[in-house]
Amino acid sequence: MFTEFEKSQREFLAFQESIANCSVGILTDGGRGVGTGTLVRYADKRLILTARHVVQGNHPSNLRIAFRPAGSLQEAPLRQFGSKPTALLPGEPVNALSVVEDAVSDLAALVLNPSQQVRAPAEFYEATGLKDFHLADETSIIFQGFPVDNAVAVGPTRKAVGIVAEHARYDSSLLTTLSSCYDASHQFLFKYGWEGDLLPYGFSGAAAWGGKQPSALVWTVNPVLVGVITHYIKKHEVIIAANLKSVLGLFSRM
User: Fold this and answer.
1) Is the pLDDT of residue 82 over 80?
2) Which of 61, 186, 223, 247 could share a disulfide with 209, CB 3.0–4.6 Å?
3) Rounded to the nearest 5°, which phi and psi values hold at 194?
């Protein structure tokens, strides 16, 4: 079902464009904290899926979300926002009916009021028919988020945070080597490749995506949710993600 994502740069950019539509920045603690979330549609509900610790201690009315800007994404070096003027996107209020949490897996879903508006080109990932599956070795894991280390000053006390995308490969040997660092019943691990260049804090809550094997002769973007990033183990340079089984368990409680 899933295949390694050895694609051209253009195909990787197309994948980034697709998942960026579903990704949101989450501003917490009066704008002092930053995390990442994913717009998801499950059954008749629209929600923001994220890590529990991102929103913990914040009433939904105190959170703000930033959607991706209109137009194509611009590539730029870290801590730069491209050669063209880039609009700064202030966070928008969250109108949530409820918050569903899973403390064991460190997951949370903000169930949105039907009146909640989203800014185009943002869209909801359809997860209603999603089913658990075996994550095979060499499966590509692609994630996109708002690490606070990728920021530029826009005033004496304000910074703008830019989105960053990364690609890793699932390696089941990590599960044995680092078995004491995670719980295999609801988590999985993968290597973090930006170590030394970009602190990962702010990726928390970001979806981990895999690429589904296309059935047509022509390749098309077809991202599939495989988990949610929750923690980083600096000593081993690995990211911990809640697995799809845990995510589906959270959805089933709504």
Assistant:
1) no
2) 223
3) -95, 10
